[in-house]
Amino acid sequence: MHSARTELTADVVVVGAGPAGLNTARHLTRAGHDVVVLEARDRVGGRTHTEEHDGVPLEIGGQWISPDQTELLGLLDELGMQTYQRYREGDSVHIAPDGTRTRYRGDTFPVADSTAKEIHRLTELMDDLVASVGAREPWAHPRALELDTISFHHWLRQQSDDEEACTTIALFIAGAMLTKPPHAFSTLQAVLMAASAGSFTNLTDECFILDRRVVGGMQSVSERLAADLGDRVHLSTPVRTIRRLGDGGEEGVVVESDRVTVRARRVVVAVPPPLFSRISYDPPLPRRQHQMHQHLSMGLVIKVHAVYPTPFWREDGLSGTGFGTSTLVQEVYDNTFHGDDRGTLVAFVSDEKADAVFALPAEERKARVLASIAAFLGERALEPDVYYESDWASEEWTRGAYAASFDLGGLARYGADQRTPVGPIHWACSDLAAEGYQHVDGALRSGRDAAADVAGALTRATA
């Protein structure tokens, strides 16, 4: 822990010690550059956080790994860290809009044949769009403006008059990923979300997208990266000001926090976009940056953890997986920690449903959430030993979950400029990633790319 006010010099300052910032620092350090990392929180990990509550380890933030997340999987291999598969044996449970509860197997919801056909057809439409648009430059597609100026809600209803099919398709983007109502983001944003996972079909397959977890918790990845960086990482050090020196930053930057001031040649801001404006810039950022940042906002989701003496649902032949498009809890999964004899469920309450229950007293909110879980898995779900709600929207240095996305028209208008440096100021975070967007894998990719950009700029400056 660093005390008193410290003045340092470095080649590069990284603002933020989440996976993006730490991977940026890791790559730059390996390339021989002197790096300082400044983190506002009293811990590393950003939106990954593993902590104990009443003696039970819980993954408060991001935790899952899918097979396509090769950047993260490669890092885990390099660090010698182990993974384990999410429990998925037995039946899943689906609750229909009319309240009908059905046990089922496979990745197809038990709906009417006509609805199943519409879900399949809409999935194919989305997969075709994903293949055409891609994750790298969706704003450059010929149909970008058209797709970015219609909400996902309304686009779906242009394609189908089967309401249950539309709400089912929307669930996998809105509730499960962007955590915003489908009328609040565009079809292009939905296509990017799917493209970042390889296909829309991948997003609908929980055995793919929620495949594995890290033994010890996802935050331990950041802890390992930070340990390798040693005293280059300064915690409890929120950055207040970034000053560019010389003509537009040609003489570098001074990065000022409450406890540490660093003079460097370059700076990488590796925090969520809604926090960019928490920093004062001298001179101010260009007009386009100011505008762009106002069109990016975080989603809202409550991640609920409920811990029981045993994973009782397994006794009943249930996997712990449940889905409902109209229920308060729209997704629930077995989230039992590696090596733990107790049973842990994780459930999600998203967007406007989260607004509604946050307006309730805590005990009433808990009762309603547990009742919703019990509708999937039985009455024993009503009485957990431990109950905890992850509320990232209330955290000063996050302000939402899982990540930031554009409002209608924003992706086509500003997407190409998201990573554009401002003189010596670069940007990195999962919110700006292509592949792995909104995930730890995307954060690592973003950090790696930012490090490459910075290293290239430093090399050109000394050539």
UniProtKB/TrEMBL annotation:
Residues 20-454 form the Amine oxidase domain. The keyword Transmembrane helix does not apply. Keywords: Oxidoreductase. One of its GO terms (molecular function) is putrescine oxidase activity. Its EC number is 1.4.3.10. Substrate binds at F348. The keyword Oxidoreductase applies. It comes from the Bacteria. Belongs to the flavin monoamine oxidase family. This is Putrescine oxidase.
